[in-house]
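Milestone M4 deliverable, item 7.
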Amino acid sequence: AAVAGLLVGIMSAQAQQHEAVTADMLKISIEEIDTLHTWCSPLWGHHAPKIAVDAAGNDYVLKFSGSYPSAQVCLMERGIDGIWKTRKQFGGAYQPSLILIDDEGSINVIQNSQSEPILHLRSSGSGQPSSFEVVSKGNGLGDGRGWYVGAGINRGTIYMSYITLSYDLHLTWKALPDTGWHKPVLVHSGSVDLKKGNHSWTRPKFG
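Output delivered:
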């Protein structure tokens, strides 16, 4: 297994609240939270956020550790006391999970699996990082699994992209509390080739 030191850079709350960030406002501190044994990079993915900050200034990070094909995800929180605390453990993850905070202050976690549908989990509310419920299972297709997942939230809508076993890249969306995803849009047709390797667009970007 690979050994990865989990480093977290937190931008100052002042800078996060402004669209135009100046050099004086940009203050980033780097610290090591843990050393992990994992089968792939714990930061795998493009627009697959592993760090989030809520309106109260609490920092959250998802740790990813374990062996192929079923690893563990740990949600950690650092409050105003500056101490990192474990809040929730999620098992059965294939690739690193994603964390997003919505306008209501709830924490949203997107998790994939090698054998099970993609999960959208959401915390009970603002300030409740230990209590989660499964909002939805799947991705809008018959086979609810997906890989190289990317996600983003805009107001009350959550967007998700992923590739399938055929390496096709899809985009889907839903209202945050909905139990099912919209019929996905095919963004790019991938290819599976045992000699040349599999190819797709695996870098969806929301922003």
